[in-house]
Amino acid sequence: QVQLVESGGGLVQAGGSLRLSCAASGLVFSIYGMGWFRQAPGKEREFVAAVNWSGTTYYADSVKGRFTISRDNAKNTMYLQMNSLKPEEKAVYYCARAETIRAARNAEEYKYWGQGTQVTVSS
């Protein structure tokens, strides 16, 4: 069964940190781009970060310098280290696999999605 499962979400105070994990099973992981997106109530799903097949990373301007995306192909796992979190970043965070080796920024380029993990940032 194809699965992407996020974990690591929770409640954190503004300025705090969380590390999200995305474990993949039942699909090819190592040769495809992987990404993190987030969606707040009433908002469109937003690109956060992505990593291509070789480990090159890309970030939304809003998270540069604070978030770090990485992948461990041996473990079929992707991570998102989030530092200096802001209240407006409260959202459900999703991991996804792209349909190419590229680190796609458009959600429409991802076919497989996890169920999401809630991140709440208090002010």
Rg is: 13 Å
Going by helix content, strand content and strand pairing, the class is: mainly beta
* Portion in beta strands: over 45%
Distance between the termini: 40 Å
Order of helices and strands: EEEEEEEEEEE
Largest sheet: 7 strands, mixed
Mean pLDDT value:
94
Number of strands: 11
General form: globular
The number of helical elements comes to 0
If you had to describe this structure to a student in words, what would you say it looks like?
This protein has 123 residues and is mostly beta strands. Helices cover 0% and strands 50% of the residues. It is built from no helices and 11 strands. Strands 2, 4, 5, 6, 9, 10 and 11 form a 7-stranded mixed sheet that branches. Strands 1-3-8-7 form a 4-stranded antiparallel sheet, with no helix packed on it. The chain is globular. It starts with a strand and ends with a strand. The mean pLDDT is 94.
Give the topology, please.
Elements: E1 3-7, E2 10-13, E3 18-25, E4 34-39, E5 46-51, E6 57-59, E7 67-72, E8 77-82, E9 91-98, E10 110-113, E11 117-122
Parallel strand pairs: 2-11
Antiparallel strand pairs: 1-3, 3-8, 4-5, 4-9, 5-6, 7-8, 9-10, 9-11
Compose a concise summary of this entry:
With 123 residues, the protein is mainly β.
Comma- or semicolon-separated keywords:
123 residues, mainly beta, seven-stranded mixed β-sheet, four-stranded antiparallel β-sheet
